[in-house]
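ok, trying the design again with the full structure, not the truncated one.
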């Protein structure tokens, strides 16, 4: 008869790490996070509060800062719903149906991950700028895309559109189409099937994708920088406004504006962990 205690001990020794190795790995991971994450975040918050709370709120209440906040929220308020609709439609089509061009659509969804944001912004300039392909036609009709709010919205939509779709596609593929097919057999319409069967099954993945999409939309720098024109009080988002203040050696105001993005990142992380916890709870997994 086999000695299962010996077998179990050998399996643990083969797959486990010595305590010293685990300690070294933990120290290395924490050191890396301290150098590249915790220290920069602490430096931003310390710089923002260096001159006191009154100076901090004064920097945020300046007209240019308020305009940057409004524009950032406006761009995200348009980009996130558009990407939500696109992501759900694309994920449902890719996961539930077979059609010509399916692999092409899947590859195109990953395009913003493969293309530099600066290059994507440059593409919009080449299309909609005064010297671009559509520039003269737009100028004749007094329509401004580049160096105006529409260009910022377009760039924001482009860099953030994969997040919802990329969260939902593997989730829908894992669940299969059996429940939707059963609902259709029972007489449910397409909308009823989506609303009562598909959506409840992917609600936590959908919320997770929305959180990531919103964080990317509000924090985007490269693509927006190219198409904005850096017009103060008009086309500067929060990241661009922080850069301008820093280049002007107005460090306290620059860190104050940057601290809003830090708080956004922390809120995004907290929301992300909450959604992951709720998802595990709904699946019956331990927290």
């Amino acid at each position: 008869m086999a000695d299962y205690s010996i077998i179990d001990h050998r399996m643990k020794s083969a797959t486990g790490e010595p305590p010293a190795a685990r300690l070294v790995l933990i120290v290395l991971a924490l050191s890396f996070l301290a150098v590249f994450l915790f220290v920069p975040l602490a430096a931003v918050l310390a710089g923002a509060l260096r001159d006191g709370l009154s100076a901090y709120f004064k920097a945020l209440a300046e007209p240019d800062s308020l305009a940057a906040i409004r524009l950032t929220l406006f761009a995200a308020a348009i980009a996130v719903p558009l990407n939500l609709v696109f992501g759900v439609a694309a994920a449902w089509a890719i996961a539930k149906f077979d059609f010509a061009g399916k692999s092409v659509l899947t590859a195109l969804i990953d395009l913003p991950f493969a293309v530099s944001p600066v290059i994507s912004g440059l593409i919009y300039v080449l299309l909609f700028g005064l010297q671009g392909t559509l520039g003269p036609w737009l100028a004749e009709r007094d329509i401004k895309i580049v160096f105006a709010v529409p260009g910022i919205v377009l760039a924001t939509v482009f860099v953030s559109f994969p997040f919802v779709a990329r969260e939902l596609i593997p989730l829908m593929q894992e669940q299969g189409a059996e429940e939707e097919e059963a609902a259709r057999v029972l007489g449910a319409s397409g909308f009823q099937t989506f609303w009562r069967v598909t959506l409840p099954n992917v609600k936590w993945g959908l919320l997770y994708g929305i959180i990531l999409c919103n964080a990317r939309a509000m924090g985007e720098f490269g693509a927006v920088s190219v198409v904005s024109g850096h017009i103060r009080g008009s086309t500067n988002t929060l990241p661009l406004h922080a850069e301008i203040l820093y280049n002007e050696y107005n460090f306290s105001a620059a860190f104050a504006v940057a601290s809003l993005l830090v708080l956004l990142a922390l809120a995004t992380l907290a929301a992300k962990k909450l959604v992951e916890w709720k998802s595990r709870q709904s699946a019956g997994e331990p927290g």
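Keeping the full-length input from now on. The first helix runs from residue 4 to 15.
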